[in-house]
Design brief:
Blueprint lengths: L3 E5 L1 E5 L2 E3 L2 E6 L2 E7 L15 E4 L1 E6 L15 H18 L2 H16 L2 E8 L4 H8 L2 E8 L7 H10 L10 E7 L7 H13 L4 E5 L3 H9 L4 H7 L12 H7 L7 E5 L5 H9 L4 E3 L1 H6 L7 H6 L4 E3 L12 H16 L7 H15 L17 E4 L11 H8 L5 E6 L2 E2 H4 L3
Parallel strand pairs: 2-6, 7-8, 8-9, 9-10, 11-12, 12-13, 13-14
Antiparallel strand pairs: 1-4, 2-3, 4-5, 6-15, 15-16, 16-17
Bound molecules: zinc ion.
Length: about 425
């Protein structure tokens, strides 16, 4: 049933709007009315009245299938994780694809239990796509693109022409491409993928300037990435001395349709470039800290006017897919890095985790806040269990929220937490 009313003690409509009490009416999966006060007595309720209702989260970067190897990043640095954990794990799963399906099921169940209604997934295997459609979540899947081991440029370009996208079996799912990184996807193949995506009106996502080693490779032309780049036909094909963001600018890749993920090592000039090209950035603070790659300059990105979204990354590099924990990690890491509370408040973390993510994915007219005409994508929290005394409701959600408090996750008016059978 996706007609009815959702009534809450506190209805958070967006980072700046609170109705206490408040309610909203849902018709055909869309929000038809948002109002302060109590609903009419005879209104059919979609969830028990009370609690806190807020816009559902947008997890703008993960790899669902990697749910098959949780904890594989424990105590490893980025390069060791890549070489000694990730690559062997993927080699194992390529022999037994069921692992990908199990991993995606695990990840999806965790997202829905944690109040996520929209997800940006990317991977080299498309097992997750029918599963996304089946469980009713909203999302984007980017098929990962790598260079060829043997850097024959004509073969590379032919490969792009042949790239197929998995069929999105739901109107809620869009598919596009995910050039893996600059050092695993050579310039000509990258440009061809981007041009094709733009011709077909598809979106893109890409890991950008994640590790110090990546930055070193592009700026100084040396370090451990040299060998990896060679393996994917991407070495010596870039202009060294330019940061990854600068390379992407020169290659014509940046733009509002590209989710630039991580951006941990970016410079002040890169921030200005991302702002000028209106390229959204997805930050994954816990994954970056877990793999010890650093802390992205999120406060500076926001100050420069860049759209910032929040992602957990996959279970292979973060302890769980909990967006509440990710919001807190974002706040704490930025405050620790900048030694200031001024750049980022709880309200900013909330915005980034909801409407910021929707904007970054081009979905701001669909989801990310609770307003008439938008999809009824919302989360109900039973906050009565927390009693730490914070009076500001939004601050309570950010500092005290957890997926254990989520009672309902609605996508287009459907409660996936009750329905999803993954
Ligand atoms: Zn990733």
């Amino acid at each position: 049933m996706n007609h009815g009313v959702i009534a809450a003690d506190h209805l958070i409509t967006d980072a700046g709007g609170l109705l206490s009490p408040g309610w909203m009416e849902v018709r055909d999966g869309l929000i038809s009315r948002v109002q302060q006060g109590l609903p009419p007595d005879d209104a059919p309720l979609l969830a028990e009245a009370g609690g806190v209702v807020l816009p559902a989260f947008v997890n703008a970067h993960t790899h669902l299938a990697l749910g098959f190897c949780p904890g594989i990043g424990d105590d490893l640095s980025f390069m060791d994780w890549l070489h000694h954990a990730m690559l062997p794990a993927i080699a194992r799963a390529e022999e037994d694809r069921q692992l990908y399906a199990n991993g995606a099921a695990e990840s999806l169940a965790e997202l829905i239990a944690g109040g996520v209604a929209t997800v940006a997934d990317s991977f080299l295997d498309a097992t997750s796509v029918p599963m996304l459609a089946e469980c009713g979540i909203r999302g984007f899947f980017g098929a990962e693109v790598f260079g060829l081991r043997n850097p024959d440029e004509e073969a590379q370009l032919a490969q792009v022409a042949d790239l197929e996208l998995p069929l999105a079996r739901s109107g809620l799912i869009a598919t596009g491409w995910a050039p893996h990184t600059l050092f695993t996807c050579p310039p000509r193949i990258l440009q061809a993928v981007v041009q094709r995506a733009r011709r077909e009106g598809r979106r893109l996502t890409m890991h950008v300037d994640e590790s110090p080693e990546e930055h070193e490779f592009f700026v100084e032309g040396r370090g451990p990435i040299v060998e990896i780049a060679e393996r994917f036909g991407a070495s010596a094909r870039f202009r060294h001395g330019a940061t990854p963001v600068r390379q992407l600018l020169d290659l014509g890749v940046l733009g509002p349709d590209l989710l630039a993920v991580h951006a941990v090592q970016i410079t002040a000039e890169d921030i200005a470039t991302l702002a000028a090209t209106r390229t959204p950035v997805v930050t994954c603070p816990r994954s970056n800290m877990m793999l010890a790659t650093g802390i992205a300059p999120v406060a500076e990105l926001i100050a420069a006017g860049v759209t910032v979204a929040l992602g957990t990354d996959s279970l292979a590099s973060t302890p769980d897919l909990d967006m509440f924990a990710e919001m807190r990690a974002l706040l704490l890491s930025q405050r620790g890095r900048t030694r200031s509370t001024r750049g980022l408040a709880a309200v900013d973390a909330f915005h980034i985790a909801t409407l910021g993510g929707a904007r970054a994915m081009g979905l701001e007219t669909v989801t990310g806040r609770l307003a008439p005409g938008l999809s009824a994508d919302c989360v109900r929290l039973d906050m009565s269990a927390t009693g730490r005394g914070r009076r500001d409701v939004l601050a309570r959600v950010v500092w005290e929220g957890s997926r254990e408090l989520v009672s309902h996750t609605f996508v287009a008016g459907r409660d996936l937490l009750g329905e999803c059978s993954l």
